[in-house]
Amino acid sequence: MKHLFLFFALLTASQFTKAQVQIPLIPKPVEAVQLGSTFILDQHTQIFGDENTAAIAHYLQAEILKYSAVSLRTGNQGSANYIHLKLTPKVKQPAEAYQLSVLENKIEIKASYPQGLFAGVSSLLQLIRQQNVVKGRISLSGWQIKDHPRYAWRGIMLDESRHFFGKEKVKQLLDWMAFYKLNKFHWHLTDQPGWRIEIKAYPKLTLVGGIGNHTDSLAKAQYYTQEEIKEIVRYAAERYIDVIPEIDMPGHATAANRAYPAFSGGGSPKYPEFTFNPGKEETYAYLSSILQEVDVLFPSQMIHIGADEVHFGNAHWNKDEAVQQLIKKQNFKDLPEVEAYFVKRMADSIKNMNNEVLAWDEIVSGKLSTDKTTVFWWRHDKPEVLKQALQKGFKVVLCPRLPLYFDFVQDSSQVLGRKWSGSFVPVQNVYNFPGAAVTDLPNAGNLIRGMQANLWTEAFVENQQLDYMLFPRMAALAEAAWTNQAGKNYEGFSDRLKKHFRLYSLDGLYFFNPFRPKTSPEWLTPLQRKGLVPNNEAQTKQEKGG
Ligand code: TNX
């Protein structure tokens, strides 16, 4: 009896130790079995594949050289030590499903689709970058990994209208998105302070509309040329990230209206020149030709038309002659009907360009059909809007302010950023989203495409401030969006996350340490050592509002 007890005690203890060995990956894969073997990666390791895997092989080579200073060559399966990238026959599974085996003399990554192969490479790179390079050699523990994502849409939105950060910062963001298997970059390019995308047919949009930002209305024009847009789109495509442009309408149009006042629908005392004019035929031709150029530049075949907060600044519609005529002609009873009419016409023109229509959740109460249309649920205080969107049959991307607006502070002590009735957005809340209140809704299973974090930038001017809001919440977002509910565990995530802080520092990122919110000297970046903490420049934002 005593022996039996001891036997069970030992058994439980050994299982316990086993459970402690976590695969050092974020997001956590569906299945990971440790093998006990070791693979040595060095300059003799060859990457083996075929013409269909060559681009991904090159990415892998380039990343290993960049971060670990080891140069691998591409080669063949006959070599003694190799990484094999293999596209397997297509079977019905998510495109990003993959298998990664780190064995004694070979590493194998298998997937049915290039997206899956890329996800496998991304996992391998995470394992590599967390190891020290000793005399040009990297030791990797043996693992057998099987993995696929929970959600197909795993995104970050960056607002570059309020403040402009530029293409180097965007590329760095795309690098980290690839690191964390985030695959949708939603680019908010137009809003009140500035228009940031060159449009050949209407050059003043950037030359005039590009002037100014949220803190300085006279800042020199900043925007992306079409060549730069193409460069970013290509860079993202190499990382299997879709870029989705947002051209906000009919509200948030102030910058465009400075350039081409003829299409302005006016505003309200607090939001002057806020809208496009829905009463003029010319407005639809103007916006459609803008969107047609946008369509050419972005192969994702998705255009986000905003459509948010129109009521902030459409008071002038009550007096505008063209809008009044439209109301009479169409027999509209109020301004929301005018708004719905405008959105429907623009949505039709986007669908005619063979694009999907994406918009904020205000469109749920409008007139849009649900086909090729995705709603971005952002008003966390209006759960009924999410419910209604799903009921009507819209596809949905989840991005409620709480907990997915990364312009909100992450700790009660912070002042730079927003709060909502005193609430903030800590890493743990990001990690725990979505809860049952969302996933148990009718239709949630088939209509929710996934989730994204939105980084609005009214309060952020410096790159370091941007980093501070994104890291490490981006890691929590990635695991929440990729890893199934059953596999999620905040304690385990925290342990894995701590090991990424060294990588953040190595990349010069300024990040928040949620485990030691006060100071964490061992991870201080050069900037932090100089005492350049963002809180010094803090501005307290209003508590409620948009
Ligand atoms: C609401 S989300 C907005 C943005 C602001 C953001 C600040 C949405 C559709 N509109 O215009 O930048 O809040 O948190």
Describe this protein with a few key phrases.
7-stranded mixed sheet; TIM Barrel; 8-stranded parallel beta barrel; Chitobiase, domain 2; alpha/beta
Give a description of the structure.
- With 546 residues, the chain is of the alpha/beta class.
- The protein folds into two domains: 22-147, Chitobiase, domain 2 (2-Layer Sandwich), CATH 3.30.379; 153-303 and 349-486 and 496-538, Alpha-Beta Barrel (TIM Barrel), CATH 3.20.20.
- Helix content is 36%, strand content 17%.
- The protein is built from 20 helices and 17 strands.
- It has an eight-stranded parallel β-barrel with strand order 8-9-10-13-14-15-16-17, surrounded by six helices. Strands 1-7-5-6-4-2-3 form a seven-stranded mixed β-sheet, with helices on one face. It has a two-stranded antiparallel ribbon with strand order 11-12.
- The longest helix is centred in the N-terminal third of the chain and has 19 residues, at 2-20.
- The protein is elongated.
Indicate the CATH topology of the largest domain: TIM Barrel
DSSP strand tally: 17
The value of Rg in angstroms is: 25 Å
Q: Any idea what the shape is?
A: elongated
Strand order of the largest sheet: 8-9-10-13-14-15-16-17
- Any low-confidence stretches, pLDDT <50, length ≥5? 12-19, 529-543
Q: Which hetero compounds are present in the coordinates?
A: ligand TNX
Beta-strand percent range: 15-25%
Helix content: 25-40%
CATH class of the largest domain: Alpha Beta
Sheet bearing the most strands, described?
Answer: 8 strands, parallel, barrel
Structural class from helices and strands?
Answer: alpha/beta
Mean pLDDT: 92
- Domain count, please report it: 2
Distance between the termini: 67 Å
Number of helices: 20
What is the correct CATH architecture of the largest domain? Alpha-Beta Barrel
Supply the CATH superfamily name of the largest domain.
Glycosidases
